[in-house]
Amino acid sequence: MAYTTALLISVGLGFFDSSAANPMVQENYVWASVAGLNFGFLADDLSLPVALMMNIICAATTIYSMGYMKHRLEVLFGKERNGSYSVYFLNILLVNTGLIGVVLSTNLIEMYLFVELILIPSAFMMALFGYENRERIAIMYFLWNHLGAFLFLAGIIVAYISTGSFAVSSLADLGAGSIAYWVVGLILVGWLVKMAVVGVHMWLPGAHAEHPTSFAPFMVTIVALGNYVIVRLLLQYMPAPFSPFAFPLMVIALATMVYGGALTTVQTDVKYVYAWSTIGQNAYTLLGIGSLSLLGVSGGLFYFLNHLIGKTILFGVAGILICQVGTRDMRKMGGLAGKMPITATLCLLGTMILSAVPPTGGFQAEWLLFTGVFFHGTSGVLGWNFVVAIFAIAATILTVGYTFWPMRRMFFGPLPAELANVKEAPLIMTAPLIALAALSIILGLYPDLFFKFLYHYATLLHLGGP
Predict the structure, then answer these.
(1) How many other CB atoms are found less than 10 A from the CB of residue 36?
(2) Interhelix angle 361-378/270-291, nearest 10 degrees
(3) With 70 as the cut, is the pLDDT of residue 466 above it?
(4) Consecutive H or E run containing 40
(5) Cβ count near 396 (within 10 Å)
(6) Which residue in 75, 149, 225, 462 is deepest, having the highest Cβ count within 10 Å?
(7) What's the alpha-carbon Rg for the chain, to the nearest Å?
(8) For residue 83, what is the enclosing H or E element?
(9) Distance, CA of 129 to CA of 104 (rounded, Å)
(10) What gap in Å lies between CA 121 and CA 117, rounded to an integer?
């Protein structure tokens, strides 16, 4: 993973210094010539930063897993089992391959196969190494996500019947007829199921809270992947038929932000706090995409990348607490900052990222996102778009509450007597999280490292706004 991350960085450096109007690197291989299928990969101003951030998250989490899985296997089996390590890290590599494959795919069937490659090993991870009712929750996760993938496949097939091609770019040939609206609807609904928006969210809290905590950052990335797919397939190649879906998407995003935030505030299990917050936080990017504004879309994508960093840090903290404290119940914690200063600092930084507090990248992303949303709401005649923008900015108050409140409950106040001997986590678990926190601060001070690519990509979509 370190090697592939370095490769992506080398491509990114070439893009950063490129004078080309639309820099890209593309590879194509003959896959099934009878069916006219090519196996292709494309790195451009959208796919490269997304793939790079996903790979960074996966690499950091893999290092973190070395410490966490030692504890988890001892809890499950009473001792370490080398065979279990092999199964765990093999599945991590498969999920990472699927994530990067979806992002770089130039072929719709290829993209669908990578989606399924993500689903199968991630379900195994839950069933083998998860917590309470892990087999039942793994099946529920598999069924719901397979339903989303099925709808996505249905949209692909309808598009192929009309265009005769599985190439991603062939979606543009559908024009704005009735078939195009069916394709947009099927693909959009399929990915909204996989993103667990309100109404089809019921599978996520359990799946996100009961898997092995070291796998949580992968799950966050899997859930957020739909943001990329919606922009790549629908906004880029089908802007006209996607346009009528934009405002309903903003309404769904707002409802998800409020519902996810409200449910987060009443949780007492640290993993469920961050699981429910994933529902609300992921909707921020959907809000930006629905605004169809330049800063709304590019800022929303930038927020998506920073959300991955912040949530990885916070789930990493949750895993550290499980290993070092031995409980997930925040009611049994308190005063841990004195015993675990590094972990407490990491929790603060992760909280600042999600709450958009400077100098983190979360701050830069959120104000860019809401600048675009408010431009969309105030352009032309004021109406429902502006109402959604107002309620959305008000919903950010929930984020501040449900991120800072758990931190206070876990790390401050009186220390329970039974936690007097708690020790700081090993460096193998804290170092990757420290590196991610440093990256977020760098993005807060110099967002162009990633935002430059996303903004340039958004300008090619001919969106409104500054």
Answers:
(1) 13
(2) 40
(3) no
(4) strand 37-43
(5) 16
(6) 225
(7) 21
(8) helix 82-104
(9) 30
(10) 7
Tally of CB atoms within 10 A around 330 = 20
Task: Copy the structure tokens of residue 359.
Answer: 């100098």
Instruction: Name the residue with higher pLDDT: 385 or 226.
Output: 226
Residue pLDDT, tens place only, 276-315: 999 988 999 999 999 999 999 999 999 999 999 999 999 9
Q: Which residue has the tokens 């193998």?
A: 428
DSSP state of 21: S
Q: Tokens 């590879």 label which residue?
A: 27
Q: State CA 48 to chain mean position distance.
A: 15
Nearest-CA neighbor of 24 among 43, 40, 46, 7? Answer: 43
Which residues, 6 or more positions from 211, have their beta carbon under 8 angstroms from its beta carbon?
122, 125, 126, 129, 130, 131, 134, 137, 219
Evaluate whether 330 touches 370 at the Cβ level (below 8 Å).
Answer: no
pLDDT of 380 strictly over 60: no
The 10s digit of each residue's pLDDT in 394-449 is: 888 888 888 888 888 899 989 998 888 899 999 999 999 999 999 999 999 999 99
Which residues have a Cβ under 8 Å from the Cβ of 272 and sit 6 or more positions away?
205, 209
d(CA 279, CA 274): 9
